């Protein structure tokens, strides 16, 4: 263990060394064994490995007599989270599309069920936000923090979701989660709730893209409508009752790429889950936008 880089509700995150390589080590509190086990099981899912999903290395338990430490060891990305990266880094069109496309690509792989000699279940993240996406050295992203994710095999009727009703980060919760209308027995509902959160992430990314020499300061979604730590009631009031969404800068309309991004995000955060785009559709649209600008994927 070299140095602590972060702290979360389940424990701490450290940068460590393993075989002379830097690794990230998530250390769970001993009381959070169930969370550690759940996240480990998700990362060990067959066929989950993908360049846009955080690379899993190992899980381990270390007992030092009185203290039990639960480790989750993954690849280390020094840029940190997308949230940290956007706060300090203005983007050009290429950088914006790289971040958006790679995130959509990781989400698409997570959401997809793969059939073959082995089957990869479809997985819903349930806590998508810019703090749970990491930026790699090459300016692409990978999806991390799968502790709240749920798996679904199509041959299994029903969804194995723990009874706790509200999970995730309030600011990114879909309207149907906030007003408790989400159909808990239908797996598609969880995927569509992820897509709402993804729309907000696209908004965070697009604001940091320079157009006409202008770039907006980084802000969290709904920054102008909500307190720093909003309650579920605050969120419900804005998202469900008033049906408000993050403000769209007027400068986007005079930039073809940002106009397309605006269309994408608004179709992801539609109030009705059935009208939202799927991760695959978002990925394909972003791939087309990159091709038309000769950006290699």
Automatic annotation (TrEMBL):
Pfam families: PK_Tyr_Ser-Thr
UniProt entry tagged with the keyword Oxidoreductase: no
Cellular location(s): Membrane
One of the protein's GO biological processes: cellular response to growth factor stimulus
Membrane topology, from the record: Single-pass type I membrane protein
Domain Protein kinase stretches: 1-290
Protein EC: 2.7.11.30
Keyword field: ATP-binding, Kinase, Magnesium, Manganese, Membrane, Metal-binding, Nucleotide-binding, Receptor, Serine/threonine-protein kinase, Signal, Transferase, Transmembrane, Transmembrane helix
Domain of life: Eukaryota
GO cellular component assignments: plasma membrane; receptor complex
Protein name from the UniProt record: Serine/threonine-protein kinase receptor
Native species: Gopherus evgoodei
Lineage: Eukaryota, Metazoa, Chordata, Craniata, Vertebrata
